[in-house]
Request: fold
Amino acid sequence: MLHWSTIRIAWRNLGRNRKRTALALLAIAVGQFALLAANGMMHGYADNIRLAITGPMIGHVQMFAPGWRDEQAMDLVLTDLSMKLSVIRTDPAVMNAGARIFAPVLAAPEHDAFAAVVVGLDIPVESQEYGMLSSMKESLGPKEVLVGYRLARRIKAQRGQEIAIVGQGADGSIANDLYTLRDIIKSPADIVNQAGIVMSLAEAQQLFVMPDSAHNIVIRTKESDQADDLAERLRIQTVLSGLTILTWKEAIPEVVQLLDVMDYTGYIVLVLVMIAAVAGIANTLMMSTFERMHEFGMLLALGSRPGRLVEMIMVEAILIGILGVIIGSLLGFGFVLGTSRSGVNMASWGGQGEMEDLAYMGLNLPLHVYPRLEGGDLIGGLLAVAVVSLVASLWPASIAARLEPMEAMRT
Amino acid sequence: MSVSVIEAKDLSKTYEAGRTEVQAVRDVSMTINKGEFTAIVGPSGSGKTTLLNLFGGLDTATSGSLSVVNLDISTLSKRQRADMRLYYLGFVFQAYNLVPVLTARENVEFVLELQGVGDERSDRAGEVLEELGLTEFADRRPNELSGGQQQRVAVARAIASRPRLVLADEPTANLDGENAEILLTMMRRLNTEHDITFVFSTHDPRVVAYAQRVITLVDGCVDKDEIKNAGSC
Reply:
């Protein structure tokens, strides 16, 4: 049983050499702060990736004709689109579902032609939060298109300008028409920014001879964890039979792995925290133990059992650990809380003012991160430091346990 | 009939100092009875502290037999010796040796807690501190007390556990004359009022004057063993 006097002695011993205790506390606090800050940033960045994936580009579940994903052939289309969409939209887990057309074209704003991709979108669906046009407030009129800002810069396109588009229809015919550039946009989807000419789905269906057809349907669920169950339900729908239906995890396993790696990064930081904590506590306890040899000898002479000295040293270690974790946690929470609303602009860290986003596999990953913490982050740090405190105290405790009273009192 | 507290027969202790052997205690035989107030005197290096350490089970004899409070020290394990010290002996050291982070009261209570004394711990500590005139200093830490006060706290700690024997190693060595006399008077009073046996080492002639019995050691051997009149102080 732990004695109250042991805790009292251990606690007061922390004040005997305040500088040394402060240094040990600092080591642990900095470690815990680093753990929470790094995990907060990591979670925030993982959120960005998940939103970028499940939002504008992939959705939670997507479907397409077999082979379309690899070949991107114009004629690999989803037919009876209205019927398919109405079946999908009746599922209670579906927040929204939008069909898309992707078609490689040549675009000519003036004399020169440039390679581009026409993206036909369900504008009302894609204008919603996490859609490809989530920042768009207005609708598109007939024969109006939007152009991604990087493509616009490359081809020197300007608002109101006419753009001739030439491509291939789904039936093999030549598809061409003249459109007016309504606006230059910045989309969460990198493909739109780099090469996209966005038009309404109906306009694209007409241009590429795809009546009631599209290349894929992107579905967003109300909750992100509903994707697997929804995909299972859709796969057994007769009207959707024969289609390839993938959840976002199945569609881009590489990114899922990346998210896993980011989780492991938290563990790496945790290990660093543990090393810092071990070093800090062990150093403090060793010095403190050697300084108090005489005192330990006296306690043994009075009749203390060696176990009591071990208990004293271990409690001291745990107290240092707990105090350090509390200080580090307060700092870490402060950092995360202070930046959770305004976010942290990671782009500015590299001194590249213009680089606001990072494109990865066609996804536009914002570098403005909103840190957040999960319950496990704090518990992980607490457990780690508790274990580490005990481990760090083993050496000095074993020295104390082997002391002979007279030898110790002679020191 | 006298009840013996310490019985030593042909007790010797040899230390190895590098390649040479030092015989700190040689063939010491003595009996110390309950209630005695005994001084062990002798020049530095005469073996006083070694003998006290042997009596306290802090050190083991090289040869001979030693019984303390009817326990044969040579048969006791390390843990049993610790228990003997805890339950039957009290110690007063030359350098006070109080726990620096505990107050006077907490230092006294600490030994009682080690003994497993429960709720009455605080009252007993208070009584002992009062008996030694330390009530007003009870909540001070050692660094806030004078040397004399610290040594009185050490005595309070030693007797609070109601030991059968108190061993004091040069208890007045760091005290001035006045504080040494105060301490010895108190120890003597505790000896007579509570019938606690005191054995203390000293080479201070003023301290010797308080002893009932004076055992003189020279080169580890008992040179003289004098019984003085009771209450000679």
Summary: Helices of chain B lie at 48-55, 78-88, 104-115, 121-131, 147-160, 177-194, 205-208.
